Amino acid sequence: MSKILIIAEHAEGKLNAGVSKTVAAAKGIGGDIHIAVLAADPAGVAAEAAKLDGVAKVITVANPANANPVAAVLAPQIVELAKDGYSHVLFPGGTFGKDLAPRVAAKLDVHQVSDIMAVHSATSFDRPTYAGNAITTVEAPAGIIVATVRLASFTAVGAGNSAAVEAATVSATLPSHTRYVKLEAQKSERPDLQSAARVVSGGRALGSSENFKVVYDFADKIGAGVGASRAAVDSGYVPNDMQVGQTGKIIAPELYFAVGISGAIQHLAGIKDARTIVAINKDPEAPIFEVADFGLVGDLFQVLPEMTSKL
Amino acid sequence: MKALVSVKRVVDYNVRIQVKSDGSGVVTDGVKHSMNPFDEIAMEEAVRLKEKGKITEIIAVTIGGAKGEETLRTALAFGADRAIHIKDDGEIQPLTAAKALAAAMKKEDAKVLLCGKQAIDDDANQTAQMVASLLDIAQATFASKVEIDGDKATVVREVDAGLETLEVDLPAVISADLRLNEPRYLKLPDIMKAKKKPIETVSLGDLGVTLAAGLKTTKTAPPPSRSKGVMVKTVDELVDALKAKGLL
Amino acid sequence: MSVERDVMEYDVVIVGAGPAGLSAACRVKQLAAAAGAEISVCVVEKGSEVGAHILSGAVFEPRALNELFPDWKEKGAPLKTPVKRDDIYFFTSAEKGFKMPGLFVPKTMHNEGNYIISLANLCRWLGQQAEDLGCEIYPGFAAQTAIIEDGVVKGITVGDMGVNREGEHKPDFAPGMELRAKYTIFAEGCRGHLGKQLIAQYGLDKNADPQHYGIGLKEIWTVDPSKFEPGLVVHGAGWPLDLVGTSALGGSFLYHLEDNTVYVGLIVDLSYSNPYLSPFDEFQRFKQHPVIRQYLEGGTRVAYGARAICKGGLNSMPELAFPGGVLAGCDLGTMNFAKIKGSHTAMKSGMIAAEAITEALIAGADGSVKLDSYASKFKASWLYDELYRSRNFGPVMHKFGSLIGGAINWIEQNIFGGKFPWTFHDLKPDYKTLKPAAESQKIEYPKPDGKISFDKLSSVFLSSTNHEEDQPVHLVLKDPSIPISKNLPMYDEPAQRYCPAGVYEVVGEAGDKRFQINAQNCVHCKTCDIKDPAQNINWIAPEGGGGPNYANM
């Protein structure tokens, strides 16, 4: 039977939401699920982790060196924990896990599975390659399986549990070659198109640069980045660097609004990894509706201001 | 101070990926390949650091079959001084690549390894971290700003929560994210000169690396196509639906 | 704006890494080596790699390759599928057609000993051979202008990189280099933008009939293995184009390669007269014909592309040489349209050019004198003989249509061995053939079904076309007002339809119409440069590396 260790991502005393999704992936594998919380003061995070459904135990490692998530510092401690009979060590697949997991895998001398998006068995997983254009099924060789979990592929588990919390001590010597300096949250300006969690794009239906204001207003209201279809770029409404699509930027926001965009395939190629697509278009036949999770047929010049005012 | 830049030959980012109908992989024959775009960014950064006098020699390294030479020539045209081709025709997984790069770094006594944060073919995002781990040296992944000062580097990293700054002792591994820089156009005279720069060929065995069993790919499939969702009638309905899904 | 340019000198510079340019490159090196001479050869190619802009059917006749590399098999040339069966259909309607009995197939359409190939992949292989022989090949660099000094072509200037849409230098501006040569071979393919200028500048076509063109549209499909018949070649004439009439001519093809891969394509003569005709949509509906559909059904379309071809043949061929340079391949117009093959002829023309140039260089020539030996060698070659035999095919088709013209061609090829005692001429250039929209029937094309037929944009997507966004538009209107002021009222602006990539659109409401050029879509087929009735669109090379990225085309 599998024995799974999940490394908790946390900041400012709060558990990251990705951990719950990682637990969901672990439940797919099946077995004993433990969460390790490495922190300066892990109590609060551990209490949150203990609530996650399916978790058997939460292990805490308290050390002032763990105040900030420095991979080189965390890795030797995790390696030590992993050697306690674990079959799997899973990391939430954000930048925290992506930075840390390979450092652990290499120390354990095992290959790593990146971005698990589906679990077939304890050793077989689906993962995206070629920017999600090909999904490969991989079989891990014998040994501990170190993996990151693609968070967009799993739904968070419930939080009605009360798992035991145990403190662990590790003896690994921690390196001093890496020093955390600071973290600056993303500036409050409009987020960058390519990394924004929310994006609003406008198409040729906007009709002019001035009319793009309704898009900016709405985007600013929900803290979204702003993009455009190629037709809008070619019509000169917005600069080139706002183009979303095959020849422009490929983006994968959590929430994508396609406003007045018909949905030419080049555009769709740029947004196929978007988690949720909302289409607003006055043409009910527009191809964008074929791929949208939510579609609204209507005049964008009425719809957008109304949305802006209602949020 | 020597810098190693690892570069990988991948299917060009403009090429539309086609999954083979028998599920055995993606079509790579007859398909344009080029340097992994993130590695181009790493290469560009190395050249800029050299132009600033922070490093003195750039050595480009690739691992793979004979065609990898093209990628090394591209690196040399960017401004690498020389190149190492770790030749192997097999499938190279990140752990193997990391062992080879770690060995190359030691052999060259390089103070920094620059590479892309991930290759756009396998999207593994592992190699840089693994090299650092194997050598027990510092890593600064997803770099959007790199400053080298003596035997230290200050790196701004693009993390989910924002921009994180790390200070690392050299030697270190730095992996490049998209916004680190915009790679320059390769100039024809530089491409011409690159043809004459030296490329040393070594094998994995020469570096003391053995191929161990890695992940086995059992199937490759195209992604499921998106299906049509629900049509809502009013703005209120839309707002409620998005709120219900926790999206707004 | 004057910029400082690096200069590099070669003996031979070749523009275009296609079958003609690469064969020329290889031949120069082979002959130089045999003579113990050192001749430097540089090839520039606007595609992002060798083969990226190569599109052809292609049933390949290995004659020229046999001469260039007798050991091509050992060297691994990608000729993998010999033609096994050869069917010709006359399609009489969207549902019907008949197979031509073998007896009536003209000799030029026999394909025993030929191979079904990807010409793009053959070019990749030829590029490798050329490099192994010591040629320098630079893909991703477009020849922008010919350097002409005192009436002598001295080489080419490579296009600048890093110029924005307004023509200003961006921070990463990189000026194009001058590549100077004693001889420059222009082998850009059909309607090369430098070839076109040189033909005009030196009056090379003053004794030739106008060039005639077609647009070839092609898709690659992976088909159901049960429907796959490796080595099968199917050619067709008639529906959706004319069988008996002459207002829209052309032909179709369907080739079965290896690995369940099928090529399907339609060639539409650009002499068509109805401005409402859309070659792209003709192709899409053509695939719905039961004879074609039977193979494609259940399969997946994996690639799309389009390219103009020169089909005027010998009658339309300009002079071959001018001081300092020569034309080769489709820049010259060496395609044999009766065989619908241009690869072996392009290769041969490149090889002949190489022979003439190498001899001249070894004799100490500096390129300043026109290379007459190219024309004399050409005339003495099998290439000339072959093109002479086929010279009447195009004009006869234009005059009599596919069925009757086909019959005349059968008589000429099978009875007279291609040597009719008379020559037909076709003197009307393709841009003059359109009838006004008012006199033409609108064509209602069926909506694409998304299974066999598709829309333009999803097709262009499959050509992996990409251009740097922020650069000057490379489709230059000599007079920007013409599309709306003249072409629209007169021909309903046919660019909207003849462009197979959706580059041209007329947008806006009545009274406020605008001609929109989506240059990023351009697959470099050159049809607009050819067919615009006002000859107002000038295709120039965009930033190097832009355009389609064809794989296995």
Question: What is this entry, summarized?
Answer:
The complex is a heterotrimer of chains A (311), B (248) and C (553). By secondary structure, chain A is α/β, with parallel strands linked by helices.
Verbal overview:
The complex is a heterotrimer of chains A (311), B (248) and C (553). Chain A is of the alpha/beta class. Chain A is built from nine helices and 18 strands. Chain A has a seven-stranded parallel sheet with strand order 7-11-6-1-4-5-12, sandwiched between helices. In chain A, helix 5 (213-222) runs parallel beside helix 9. In chain A, 56% of the residues are buried. Chain B is of the alpha/beta class and 248 residues long. Chain B has a single domain, classed as 3-Layer(aba) Sandwich (Rossmann fold), CATH 3.40.50.620. Chain B has six helices and 13 strands. In chain B, the strands form two sheets. A nine-stranded mixed sheet of chain B has the order 9-8-7-10-6-1-4-5-11, sandwiched between helices. Chain B has a two-stranded antiparallel sheet with strand order 2-3. In chain B, strand 8 (152-159) and strand 9 form a beta hairpin. The longest helix of chain B has 15 residues, at 37-51. The model of chain B has no long low-confidence stretch (mean pLDDT 94). Chain C is an alpha+beta fold and 553 residues long. Helix content of chain C is 26%, strand content 23%. Chain C has helices spanning 19-34, 63-68, 119-132, 193-201, 279-286, 290-296, 343-362, 372-379, 382-389, 393-414, 456-461, 482-491, 495-498, 527-531, and strands at 7-15, 41-45, 59-60, 81-82, 85-91, 97-99, 115-116, 136-139, 143-149, 152-158, 161-163, 169-174, 178-186, 213-222, 232-238, 250-256, 261-269, 300-310, 321-322, 325-327, 475-477, 504-507, 514-517, 537-539. In chain C, strand 5 and strand 6 (97-99) form a beta hairpin. In chain C, helix 1 (19-34) packs parallel to helix 7 and helix 7 (343-362) crosses helix 8 (372-379). Chain C is globular and about 65 Å long. The two termini of chain C are 39 Å apart. Chains A and B meet through helix 3, helix 4, strand 7, strand 9 and strand 10 of A and helix 3, helix 4, strand 7, strand 8 and strand 9 of B. Strand 18 (294-297) of chain A pairs parallel with strand 13 (230-232) of chain B.
